[in-house]
Amino acid sequence: MILPPGEQTAAHDNHAPAAHYDRITEAWGLLLGEELHYGLFVSGDEELATATGELTTRMIDAARFSPGQQVLDVGCGTGAQACRLASEHSVEVLGITTSEVGVAAATERARAAGLSGARFEVRDGTDNLLPAGSFDRVWVLESSHLMPDRPGLLSDCARVLRPGGRLVLCDIIRRREIPFRELRDRRREFAVLRAAFGAARMDQLSDYESYAQAAGLTDIECVDITTATLPTFDRWQDNLDRHREQVLGILGAQSVTEFEESLQILRRFWQDGTLGYGMMSAARPDAVVPTP
Ligand SMILES: C[S@@+](CC[C@H](N)C(=O)[O-])C[C@H]1O[C@@H](n2cnc3c(N)ncnc32)[C@H](O)[C@@H]1O
Question: Number of folded domains in the chain?
Fold first, then answer.
């Protein structure tokens, strides 16, 4: 899940996001639920599905949707949010992911719900090849940490936004500098996280702000929601306890051990201020009206 800053993901690597998500999508449904992201816990006692829904609701509030808008969902997982946005907010969503398994599951979800406003394609969020200025909103929910080219992601998101459009992004963040010595001393923990969650790199919220600024976005707002996401690890452990046999059958014993250990590692990282969770919203400025 975590690579030392600067380390790149090789395309042939089993931990590279496309291969990783093709492999784990079915098991993730049992462990993480319908929504493949952290929960935002208000009381701390909620069910995981309530808390993941609440995180999505916070993103919806920041996105400020209007009916009929075109939305790009970058890293759409199995389409849970795209389907919710299309059905509850009457927007048209294109969900993209590098995982073919994800696209198939998301397409089936939209079909089963009878939704024509949510469709899905295999595309890379850092080079989406979609027409410039073709979306009113870009939605990036917990996928950016899997994209090594973070400035490329933000510039491609800004490129496809119409003037006046908005970007909303949530993700796991690094909350402090990690000295090389500490990276070295904790390399086993990083290796377990990488095995369980795939190759990734965490940036600080201030890095995201810089990438957004460099991409020409304005009105940037960042919020750290680390504390409210902490109970997520207990819920994932509960799901593992509940579905252990099934998950073992899908992923095998080694992956289950790595997942379980990674929950303890992540909990420590959350509690010692190393990692956490953040949200950013930003806007593409309105077109400048030329003066006569
Ligand atoms: C943690 S899941 C989040 C899925 C979904 N947003 C959700 O919250 O349920 C990360 C998603 O990012 C996708 N992803 C990883 N790298 C990507 C890339 N370069 N371009 C597009 N999607 C990517 C994965 O395939 C997966 O669907």
Answer: 1
pTM, whole model, 2 decimals? Answer: 0.90
The residue range of the domain holding 94 is 17-283
* Ligand 1 neighbour 143 (Cβ under 6 A): yes
Q: Is the CB of 53 under 6 A from ligand 1?
A: no
Q: b vs e for 249-275, b when ≥16 Cβ sit within 10 Å of the residue's Cβ?
A: ebbeeebbebbbbbbebbeebbeeebb
Would you place residue 288 in the very low, low, confident or very high pLDDT band (cuts 50, 70, 90)? low
In terms of Cα–Cα distance, which of 127, 169, 207, 203 is closest to 283?
A: 169
CA dihedral 161, 229, 1, 7 (to 10 degrees): 60
Is 10 contained in some domain?
no
With a 6 Å cutoff on the Cβ, whether 203 touches ligand 1 is no
**From 100, 121, 143, mutation site for ligand 1 pocket: most ligand atoms within 8 A of C-beta:** 143
Locate the ligand 1 atom nearest the alpha carbon of residue 126 and give its number: 19
Q: What are 130-149's pLDDT values in tens digits?
A: 999 999 999 999 999 999 99
> Residues 108-122: what's their mean pLDDT?
96
53 part of a folded domain: yes
